[in-house]
Amino acid sequence: MAQSVHRMPALTLNTDGHPHPRENTLVALTAVMGVIAFTTSFFYNLHVLTSWTGLAGIITGFWGMFVSVTTAERFVLMITLGASAVGFYLGIARGGLIG
Question: Which residues cross the membrane (predicted)?
Answer without folding.
Answer: 26-44, 51-69, 75-93
